[in-house]
Amino acid sequence: MKLGASVLLIGLLLGGIALGQNVRKSIATLDPNGPEIASLRKGIQAMQSRAATDPTSWKFQASIHATYDQPSNQQEVQTWNQCQHGQFFFLSWHRMYLYYFERILRAASGDASLTLPYWNYSDPTQRGLPLPFRQPADPSANPLFVSERDANMNDGTGFLPAGAVDLSALNCTNFDTSDPQCPSPYGFGSAAVPQPEHFNELYGALEETPHNVVHVLVGGQNVSGQCNGSWMTDPLCSARDPIFFLHHANIDRLWKRWLDQGGGRQDPLADQAWMSTQFTFYDENAQPHQLTGKDILDTVGQLNYCYDDDPGCLGTGPPQPKNCSVMKLVCGNEATLVCDPIPLPDTLVLEARDKDAVPLPDYRGVGLTPPMLPDGANIVYDAPISQLDNEFKACAVDQSFRRNCIPDIPFFGPDLTGCPGGPPPHPLPTCAQCRKEGCACRAGGGCLCQ
Ligand code: C2O
Questions:
Q1: Which has more confidence, 281 or 10?
Q2: Residues near 272 by Cβ (< 8 Å), separated by ≥ 6?
């Protein structure tokens, strides 16, 4: 988002960093040419353009997972090669890693609504590598493409076999010990150990299948030992491939699906090592942070994200109507709204389309003002409003990510009110217009819409 407007506006936006729930969505629900994939590419590209010594760079983040490179300073010695495998820090460590990685990627993309998608390969229709990761098949045009993968997965002719993405791990009832329903002697989430171990081999059922199996099938068999061959197959190279993060988001999601089933399933809450061992990560400002197991138990309450299939993540029941009586584009890329108060942590989103109703995904702005959105709040676009045939609408998005578009004037503009040569302010909609939109009239002007 470009912060090209007034100081007031910048203050409002910074105050809005605590946005609503971040919903991690299935990649299959995203348009390959839509705004989410565009933001994903933009964020990866920005991270890749940073110096490898920058903790927020693509390379440094991959090295936090694991690397063949020699660390060149204390910071690198302490934070590289931390990934936890083959024991019960596997799930918790990767959740922490993805959490800070997602924050860095979001900031790098400039899209405050960016979240990591997940790849639900256990769905029979999703056994191939997601399209945006293989087309265009050119790393300079498509940051989601890397050539260091199995050739068939990359060209769309390869599919994960059903056995590779089997979910019988969900049958286990114990986190780290055997039970009769569990395909691994080390339970669902791998064996308990007294302290972190970068690579162990006491794989629990989920880490084995689908986690390990999918790594190898996506990466292929051409392992060079120096990241010249199969990235996903080699844990020292795997986090260089963007699909790594969608794979791990899915594993992280399956951990939640496992807990949901109840029947005695629970995290090792009584294990002091699992609960209290600290790991270090960097945020989007390259500031170090420590996380422990007890900090990441609740993705909603502690980490502010949910998966689109988490119960309640997308909200239940109808969204609360919010009303804006007047909206006008002030100038450049600002809009002024006069609205009912919108409580935190809801957000307002401005959407645009051209007159032919073609969506303009780049023209999307997010605004939020603490503690309530007062009348006359400004929200800003991430692109200048310059095309006079564009139309706009505002939507309120509540904390459960339910979108409620404010339909007083469903799409409005081209109204460059206040700009040199601009037209007069947009009039309030008449009662007749309100009824046409399926809304009631509002005392004092404007519409009340459900
Ligand atoms: Cu730390 Cu799937 O790898």
A1: 281
A2: none
One-letter identity of residue 357: A
Determine whether 135 is exposed, middle or buried from the number of CB atoms within 10 Å of its CB (0-12, 13-18, 19+): middle
Which residue is closest in CA terms to ligand 1's atom 3? 235
Nearest alpha-carbon partner for 378 in 333, 411, 417: 333
Cα dihedral 188→193→196→202 (10° resolution): -50
Of these ranges, 220-234, 363-377, 408-422, the one predicted with the greatest mean pLDDT is 220-234
DSSP 3-state assignment of 388? coil
Atom of ligand 1 nearest to the CA of 247: 2
- In 121-164, DSSP assigns E strands to none
Give the pTM: 0.69
The ligand 1 atom at the shortest distance from the C-alpha of residue 66 is: 1
Instruction: Give the three-class secondary structure for 108.
Output: helix
Q: How confident is the model at residue 21 (pLDDT cuts 50, 70, 90)?
A: confident
Could you tell me the two tokens for 52? 């490898």
Please tell me the distance from the alpha carbon of residue 39 to that of residue 32, in angstroms, as a whole number. Answer: 11
Q: Kindly calculate the radius of gyration of the chain based on its CA atoms and give it in whole angstroms.
A: 24
The closest residue, in CA terms, to atom 1 on ligand 1 is 83
Q: Cα(235) to centroid of ligand 1, in Å?
A: 6
Q: Give the ligand 1 atom nearest the CA of 94.
A: 1
Distance 43 CA to ligand 1 centre (A): 21
Lowest mean pLDDT segment, chosen from 13-17, 26-30, 355-359, 421-425 = 13-17
Distance 83 CA to ligand 1 centre (A): 7
Q: Of the candidates 176, 171, 182, which has an alpha carbon nearest to the alpha carbon of residue 254?
A: 171
Q: How far is the CA of 144 from the centre of ligand 1 (A)?
A: 18
- What does residue 289 show for φ and ψ, rounded to 5 degrees? -140, 145
**What gap in Å lies between CA 396 and CA 315, rounded to an integer?**
14
CA 123, CA 414: separation in Å to the nearest integer?
44
Cα–Cα distance, 250 to 247 (Å, whole number)? 5
